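The records we work with from here on pair a chain with its fold. These numbers are not coordinates but entries in a learned vocabulary of local backbone shapes. To see the layout at work, look at the sequence and tokens printed below.

. . .
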Amino acid sequence: MSDSIRVAIAGLGTATRLMLRALMSHPNIEVVAAASVREAERNAFARDFSIPVYADIDELSGLDSVDAIYIATPTHLHVEHVLMTLERGKHVLVEKPLAADLSSAQQMVEAAEKSGRVVIVGHSHSFDAPIQAMRDIVQSGEIGGVRMIHNWCYTDWLYRPRHPAELSTDLGGGVTFRQGAHQFDVIRYLGGGALRSVRASTGHWDASRPTEGSHTVYLEFEDGVCATAVYSGYDRFPSAELTFGIGEWGHRAPPSDTSYGVHRKRSRQLTAAEESVQKCEQSGYRAGDRLQPEGEYQPFFGLTLISCERGDIRQGPHGLFVYAEDRILEVELASTKTPHDKVIEEFVGAINGSIEPVHTARWGMATLEVCLAVLESAKRREEIYLHYQFEIE
């Protein structure tokens, strides 16, 4: 294989619209094919990029002209699609969460190890530049060892247009799988990976949205570091009010007086079929001008706060604020690379051997274990001990 990695894309929905610019702009990536079950998405993609498009991943993964596949299909299809791709000798970049159950995740981990191919799980917000800079400060020891980590996020996630699978916990839907995976990745990344246990409660407050809409999670690492992850997708208080008015991708959040409760109210006017159609129209690829624009500020996945022995760290609009012994320091971060650019950098670096990746299939399985432990802890109202966690350098 040459320096150029020939990538095919499976799934042309929201995740691909967020990742596509990073894929297209990396000097070592050539996007050579795509697949979608939806004809409108296939036609639009073929029109804009003049590359072959297919109706399913089976044909895509068998192409000799493809070195790697970006799998952005629904969570419950990941195991089938990842195993098929690895069996045919391709590298894999797969969206989070890795799977909806540990046995499927274990199959993917074993298949990746057996094949010798790279599997990277992303995007997650542990790729955000401020989160990675927080870890660098912790690793440097400048303000002592980490002692507490918190991530709190309040959004309208539950009421945005959804496919039925996104509202089915069994299929990997709900905020614990879909949004908690971000939080648990961030917390594990900042704390070094080796979680010990989870105690959690989840919220099911709206019978019309039959899945987890919120969770409150207490996590403890093997070394005694503790963390909390709080998420509500019930479209009331927005955590952008705690993050300088900046949202998930570094854009200014819309003012509450014009946007308050819009998705919650609109969802109640739609049938499930109408909502699914609206989701396809909003998320599916239609034209290049609908790709995610770059944010003016650093991305905020809610409020992230780390307490170390001699200081605290939180995000600012342009980087970090470090609350040290005798002063508050502002650390500005470059905004030339998006989190999705960093995903592609890790993927390319893992394939060419220039870096030791963090977000492997094994990492994805450990994050999935936390998601499942949260659900089990909430059900049993007990602390759940973890078995697939590991330390990272």
Observations:
- DSSP finds 13 helices and 15 strands in the chain.
